[in-house]
Amino acid sequence: MPDVRMASPQGKWILLTTVLGSSMALLDSTVVNVALPRIGRDLDADLAALQWTVNAYMLTLAGLILLGGSLGDRYGRRKVFVIGVVWFAAASLLCGIAPNVGVLVAARALQGVGGALLTPGSLALIQASFHPDDRGRAVGVWSGFGGIGAAVGPFLGGWLVDGPGWRWVFLLNVPLALLCVPVALRHVPESGDGKAHGGFDVLGAALGALSLAFVTYALIEARSGSVMVALAAVAGVAAGVAFVFVERRRPDPMMPPDIFSSRQFTAVNLVTLCVYGAFGGFFFLCALQLQVVAGWSALGAGTALLPTTVLMLLLSARSGDLAVRIGPRVPLTVGPLLCAAGMLLMLRVGPDASYLTDVLPAVLVLGLGMVALVAPLTATVLASVDVGRAGLASGVNNAAARVAGLIAVAALPLLTGMGPEAYRSPTAFDDAFHRSMVWCAGLLVVGSAVAFATVRRPAPDCLRPECKTHASLTAPPLEGRRSRGRLRK
Q1: Would you say 126 and 61 are in contact if contact means Cβ atoms under 8 Å apart?
Q2: How far apart are CA 67 and CA 253, in angstroms?
Q3: Fold of 260-489
Q4: Contact 169/56 with Cβ under 8 angstroms?
Q5: Same topology for domains 1-198 and 260-489, yes or no?
Q6: I need a labelling partner for 192 at 20 to 30 A (CA). Which of 300, 301, 472, 481 fits?
């Protein structure tokens, strides 16, 4: 049984390690969008290249995050976490010195591999190290500091882009890793799962990643109408079918198909695909809209979205408690509708937009919608499966959110008629942005309808999330495999 107490020096070192590690991935996911216009200008990149700058990272992270958690269980959580931190920092360094957009995209894909190793490891180290009486408090501190990092991220990213330059958005990860790795090696105990003796589903992970890669390529490059696009689309579908075939027949699949035998679990993941697809498209395009069309600085664009993160940081735990009392159906129905209203309010944002009258009302409504739905969504995912599959269910839901964002970033410019040079033309981009907000709002309405029709109150003795404070805008929180909390009516 883990026996480290939170008040002990070792407990504080463990918390520092996990906060530093998770902050690397969290900061990267919140600051890169702010840097996109400057990256495009400096590297002479078209819109497709900017899409790949975002999607290359999400592609490998979404495809490998379930495998990353399994590697930690088998070979040691600290070891895999440290490898992930070093890998992420090395890829970040390559991003920071990239001479062209091709190298940058490749480095971003490598970053996603590192993120898939360190992201599941942060919470797993806490759950495997701390005494059960302190674990809930430790998770709370870890998630709280993570929320602060998410809030600081866009502000810091904007300041770096406007000051030292966009390359420092990536180079910042290197000193964080140099601090994190020695502390982890010296103060964090190694842990693993002695029962993890099955094989790794490398084939499943590869097929899943290939399917996403081909589909993403086909969507981003569809404007060209080339034979390669058609072949990529067919290959993506074929790889997806092969992934399902392999997962159904492997004795130890990465994503066991029978987990979807729970109608509630399937329904909540459909809601996840809708809402996080809308979020992914919104946060990709909003930073561009504020800089390209409204003429704001990178710092102004990053700071503009700060209220959404602050609201989630302050209110997500209370939202989760409310959902326990009234059930998840109302929050998961109302939350997406509030988010849709916030995105429609963004239609007012154009040239010379005012923050107080145009942007802030939209951001506040969006943030309240996210507060309403994120914590209940996570709780409902955990409540829909057996206790022993909590970590798997959370990982699948987290990956689904990232896949939704990946597809949205690839598809929205195609659906709304954004040309390769659209982000260089304020008028063209403004028109396409407004059409995009309508698409995103529509997707949220679909998610609300699915929640209203399918989500039911969970059983009184089902699993309850340990991570109650959450401020990430890119995916719902991960829950560890050893969670023991209970969700009560």
Answers
A1: no
A2: 10
A3: Growth Hormone; Chain: A; (1.20.1250)
A4: no
A5: yes
A6: 472
Amino acid 92: pLDDT: 96
With beta carbons less than 8 A apart as the criterion, state whether 24 and 151 touch: no
The CA-based angle 176-122-250, given to 5 degrees, is 130
Note whether 87 and 173 are within 8 A (CB): no
Token reading at 432 = 């396409």
pTM value?
Answer: 0.91
- Please report, as a single letter, which amino acid is at residue 227: V
For the chain, what is the HEC assignment? Answer: CCCECCCCHHHHHHHHHHHHHHHHHHHHHHHHHHHHHHHHHHHCCCHHHHHHHHHHHHHHHHHHHHHHHHHHHHHCHHHHHHHHHHHHHHHHHHHHCCCCHHHHHHHHHHHHHHHHHHHHHHHHHHHHHECHHHHHHHHHHHHHHHHHHHHHHHHHHHHHHHCCCCHHHHHCHHHHHHHHHHHHHHHCCCCCCCCCCCCCCHHHHHHHHHHHHHHHHHHHCHHHCCHHHHHHHHHHHHHHHHHHHHHHHCCCCCCCHHHHHCHHHHHHHHHHHHHHHHHHHHHHHHHHHHHHHCCCCHHHHHHHCHHHHHHHHHHHHHHHHHHHHHCCHHHHHHHHHHHHHHHHHHHHCCCCCCHHHHHHHHHHHHHHHHHHHHHHHHHHHHHCCCHHHHHHHHHHHHHHHHHHHHHHHHHHHHHCCCCCCHHHCHHHHHHHHHHHHHHHHHHHHHHHHHHHHHCCCCCCCEECCCCCCCCCCCCCCCCCCCCCCEECC
Residue with tokens 């499966």: 385
Over residues 145-160, the pLDDT tens digits come to 777 777 777 888 889 9
Residue, of 462 and 278, whose pLDDT is higher: 278
Q: What is the pLDDT of residues 279-321, one digit of tens each?
A: 999 999 999 999 999 999 999 998 998 898 889 888 888 888 8
Q: Which residue has the tokens 């909540």?
A: 268
Place of tokens 């890119």: 474
- How long, in residues, is the chain? 489
Residues 6+ positions from 404 with CB-CB distance below 8 Å:
272, 273, 274, 275, 276, 277, 280
Sequence spans of domains, the chain: 1-198, 202-249, 260-489
Under CATH, what is the fold of the domain 1-198?
Answer: Growth Hormone; Chain: A; (1.20.1250)
The values of phi and psi at residue 140, to 5°, are -65, -45
Q: How far apart are CA 446 and CA 254, in angstroms?
A: 29
**Both tokens of residue 483?**
């969670």
Q: Tokens standing for 59?
A: 């592609």
Cβ atoms of 378 and 465 within 8 Å: the answer is yes
